[in-house]
Amino acid sequence: MGYDLRPRHKEIGDFHFGAFNWGWMLDAGVGLVLGAGPSIKPATFRYSHDKKGRCPYYNEGFHVTSKDAKTMALIAYGLVSVEKGKWSEWNSFTDDEKRTIEEPRMSGVYRRPVREDFIEKVERFATWAVQSGGFWIY
Fold first, then answer.
1. pTM of the predicted model, to two decimals?
2. How far apart are the C-alpha atoms of 24 and 122, rounded to whole Å?
3. How far apart are CA 125 and CA 138, in angstroms?
4. Per-residue pLDDT tens digits for 34-85
5. Which of 132, 136, 137, 121 lies closest to 10, judged by CA?
6. Which of 9, 15, 31, 94 could form a disulfide with 5 if both were Cys (CB 3.0 to 4.6 A apart)?
């Protein structure tokens, strides 16, 4: 299951997210614009419905206004900057430091950078969202 974002300005084309990219991006802070984010229990989320009662985590046609799309883009650019910075930091660590961070007992203590393809996707989304005129999530 993926997500297809359909813009109001049709000439820019749809934007596609894989099943994990979209939820990760919302949980990482971009969803706050829509009143969406992680909840208390693992793999759960909280959200505000749109005017038709739809949820931004489901591909059921949730509507994002042009203003919200531009705000999401601004936050997404910030997220990209932070994650790229984490990669720079990660690449400066020695192999011993990386092994320590990756140990199961350190899970939850350190925050490893997200996959680089996720960062690239979020950056492309931000550029697209600014031009979209708003969009629907399917």
1. 0.89
2. 10
3. 15
4. 999 999 998 899 999 888 999 999 999 999 999 999 999 999 999 999 999 9
5. 132
6. 15
Give the CA angle between residues 114, 89, 41 to the nearest 5°. 35
Residue 45: in which H helix or E strand, if any?
strand 45-46
Q: Rounded to an integer, what distance in angstroms lies between the CA atom of residue 1 and that of residue 3? A: 7
User: And the tokens for 29?
Assistant: 């802070």
Residue 62: per-residue pLDDT:
96
Q: Which two tokens stand for residue 83?
A: 């994650």
pLDDT of amino acid 35:
93
Helix, strand or coil, per DSSP, at residue 112: coil
- Please state whether 23 falls in left (phi above 0), alpha (psi between -120 and 50) or beta: alpha
DSSP, res 107: B
Instruction: State the Cα angle at 77 between 82 and 109, rounded to 5°.
Output: 25
Q: At which residue do the structure tokens 């229990």 appear?
A: 41
Q: Rounded distance, CA 14 to CA 55, Å? A: 19
Closest CA to 29 of 87, 65, 74: 74
